[in-house]
Each structure stands twice: as structure tokens, then as C-alpha cells.
Amino acid sequence: MFDDRLSKGRRRGRAALTALVIAGVGAALIAGSAFFPTLVEAKKKELRTEVPPGELDDYYGFFSGGHSGEVRVLGLPSMRLFKRIPVFNLDAGSGWGVTNESKAMMGGLVTGDTHHAHASYKDGTYDGKYLWINDKANNRLARIRLDYMETDTIISIPHAQGVHGIFPQRYPQTDWVILNSEFRTPLHNDGKGDIRDAASYNGVHTVVDAHDMKIVCQVMVPCNLDLAATDYQGKYSFATSYNSEGGATISEMLAKDRDWLVVFDWDAIKDGLKKKDYKVVDGIKMLDGKPGSRYAIYVPVPKNPHGVNVSPDGKYAVCSGKVSPTATVVAIDKLADAFAGKIEPKDTIVAEPEIGLGPLHTTFDGRGNAYTSLFIDSQIVKWNIQKAIDLYKNPKKDDTAVVDRLDISYQVGHTMASMAETKEADGHFLVSLNKISKDRFLNVGPLKPENDQLVDISGDKMRLLMDEPSYIEPHDCIIVRRDIVEPHVKDRADMDEHPLAVHKNAIERDGNKVTVHLTANAPVYGMQEVEVNEGDEVTFIVTNHDEIPDLAHGFCISDYGINFVVGPFQTRSVTFVANKPGLHWIYCTNFCHALHLEMRLRLMVKAKA
Ligand code: CUA
Ligand code: CA
User: Fold this and answer.
1) How far apart are CA 517 and CA 529, in angstroms?
2) Using a 6 Å cutoff on CB, does residue 369 contact ligand 1?
């Protein structure tokens, strides 16, 4: 009976694999052309908002999880949550933070604060390979491989606090990822010297090699650096700075009417590295990007700017001052002249339309329109970039670049349109990531969910489609076409990618160190019992040999605080000291078989004499 079920499962697995291959070929055929048949079909009337049972979404949404420390994968337009990818957080469901593999990446920390998820690029659009996410809390950068949708590397960023804005290189492909430090600190932050002297603090713009995840260099600046963007030519990166004052208190940070959009010149940085125009600080090449240096220019933009986003045509960087009702449009083709000193940095500004109160982030529809989140007004405002530029040149009374406004619920932070951070921005959907939901959902106490609202931006008027509650607290997201990601996503791991993959069950003893090599095949582990002595250092290495898609096994040791899952063909390990004598059943936590409950083995820890 069970064998029969297994073989049916295997057949299903093969059928699914075949379907995936066909879907992949289909996606490859239509990539770059018309997009999904389902969506095109639906567009004849209006954008579909429902995904009926059994059908698939048109987009992946990769959302940061804020201080939950994770990344979330949703489908759009359904807004269904598919997966929570643990990154900087302990995850009880998957055992992230419990296994040796994840612990080695996490470096003893089990909290984080993720803000900005950005995927890898080729030629200005996503290639579906990787996703990067920052940890503002502990100043780290993580990379997630999208074929497994699991974290594969975490690195620490030195000389930086409040690692906030990140962005991958968009052209010709992602070789660099840049990161900003929002908090200024002493360069040698060792508590020696005058820590109170805020004038001596600095920020850093960090360049990370996207391939080996090593730090290429840092560019030191006197100001803080908040959000980040890269251009579409592989020439520049951008950082807003709301603390050009170099203040340490909120009133000091609000002293000036204008702060900065700092632009970094990548050719100059590469040349500086070649000519060794840096000092080595704690092993890191540190270039000096102070005003007047060749590495950075400082464009004066309205008070305390936050977001910076580059239009999909690659022409403009748009930022907004949180306490100015405007957006600032910087022409990227003027930057070379500003770096050469032919024009002033301020002369790169080509528009500054008045759009509303508390402007934060801007996204795009690929048809020349920008959509800016207004935190104070609780609105998404749609405005036309070219019209804003025309009106900046020839102001007309009573004329405006604003095209439409949509009230949202409530207090929007980031906003993102489908494919908007690529040259393939398609202007279908927009997500308004609202910080406050108040009365929009059943009351669950003082800590309420956030409200991520889905908006149809395919027409002249924006149309609110859906409220989606989300657990605290997504900051930002990207919306990626399904055909870019799905063909690369695997149902099973490459078993031998893990150097310790178990092919043969065995117990090895070396003094008081015991290593157990264990396979898992529904509904049995490769051994029925393991005997160790109290005080032994025990390592279990578990490989799941089930090839059926979605057939994961758990590994939980009763009363030992050890609990994790292993996906098809994956290997996970755990090391602990057997400090509790007695019988401890090890059991499978992940329902895998009709005999799932019987999938267990005895760990017998013999008490010291
Ligand atoms: Cu294996 Cu349940
Ligand atoms: Ca300021």
C-alpha cells in the first residue's frame, strides 16, 4: 500500500517536472515578447485580480520582513504568501538558526532588520539568479540564491552602522552590490578618543563583489547615506543623505533647508583602486569621497531626503525630501559634466514638482509616469516626469505634473510597481506598503498587521484592488515577472553540493566526538537507534534521499531543543553536547507519509558512571 503511494508520488513528481520543463520552454519563447497569455487575455477587459484555485500568479513579489529578519515570497496579483525565507532570524518552522549550516552563516546572531530586497540583473533587467537583503540591525548583507530560495551567504560590513540602502549593479550585469550606512560613526569605532565629537563621525558607501561576496572597497563620506540606487549604465550609484549637517540630534539633522543626493562615480572608484588612492583600514580599501574629491558629487536636494529611484529609461534619478512637498528629478546625462566641474551639481536638477506631503519613495510604470508615496497625506500620487520637466523650465500658474491621486490606508512607506526597477517596467500593478492598518482588519490587539495594498495602474486612474495584511513589517519589495524566476527554481537540491551528503549510514567515534551519518527516506531514517555517552559531542548529518517534490523530512530530538527540516536531496547537520542522559526519541516533524508518525529512532544517552 505504502509502496503504491510512493510510486504514485514519484509519478506525480515526474509529471510535475515535465510540466516545469515545458513551462520553462514556453516562458523562454514568450520572454521579451507579449508576456503571460493569462495576463494578456485578462487585459482585454481589465487586469485580473483573482487567481482561481489551481492557477498560478503572474508575478513573484519579494518582500523584506523588516525586524522579523526574513524575506517573504508572495504571488501577485493574489498577494498569497508562499514562503518565508529565513535570513537573519531564528526560524522554528525550518530550523534555520538550529542547523550547523545556518549557524555558520549567522555568526551567533538570531535577529536582524531587513529592509531592501533587490535581485540580480543582466542588461538592465532581472536574471532570476540571486536576491540581496540588508540587515540594518547588525550591519550585514545576505545573498539568497533564487533556485533554492534559501540564504547562501551572509557577510558583515565593517565601519558601518545602520546599513540601510542597498542596490545591485544593473548593467551590463550585477558584479557589484552597493550599501549605505545610515548612521555616522567614528571610523575606528573602538571607544577610544572622543566618542562625543559628532563632527568626527563619517558614513561609508560600501562596494561588495556580487560573486564572491567580498568587500571591494569603501568610500568614506562626511555625511550619512540613506537609500541607494544604481544607474542603467554601470557608471553611477546614488545615496540620499538627510544628515548633511553632521548632527547627532534630530534638531541638528533638521537644521538645513537642503541636504544631499550623493552620486558616486564608478569609473573614478575603479581608477582610484588601480592607482592605490586609498588607505587600508582594518584590511579594507578606504577611498576618501569627501566633497571636492573625484569619487562623489553632492547634489543639494530638499530637506531630509529619503528615497531615490531611477526611472526605467535610465534617464532620471528621483528623490524626495521628507519635509518638503516636492520630488527632485536629477538628469543622469548631466552627471558627467558635474563630475568634470563643467556645471555645478545643482545644475543636474531638471525638475522639482510639488506633489504632496511627506513624499518618500517613487516607482514607475514605464510610460513616463512616476508614482510617489506620500506618508503624511496617505496617498500614492501619480505624476508625469516630462510634464514636471517642462513646467520647471516654463512654470505655468495652475498647471501641474500631477495626474492622479489615490488615498491609501494608511501612512505609506515604500511603493513598488511591477518590474519597475528594471528597463522592462510594465505598468500593471503597484503595491503600496502601508505602515498602519488601524481599522482595516479584525482587531488583534495593540500590535496590528501592516497593510500592503495592491493597486491597478494599467489605466489613467489608479484603482485599489486589495488589502493584504502582513506581519511586522515589510519595508520594501520588488515585483518580478514569473517567467524570469520560475524556470530556474528547483524542486530538489543538487545532493553532492553539500560536502557531507550522506550516501551510507554510519556512526563514527573519535574520542568523545560522535558523528552520525543518517539518511531519511519516507517513512524511515537510515538507522533505528544511536547510542552515545553523556558528555559526548554529537554531530548528526542528515540527507533526505526522497526525490519527490515537496517531500521534506523533519529531524527533532526530544528535549534537546533541536528541530529542523531537510528538503528533497538536501543535507543538514547539527552538533550538540549530549548532556541529558536517557532515552530521547528522534522523530520526523514534517508529515511525509502515512507512516510519518512511525518515522523515528532512539537516541540513547548513557549516563556517566
Ligand atoms: Cu519523514 Cu514525516
Ligand atoms: Ca537635514
Assistant:
1) 12
2) no
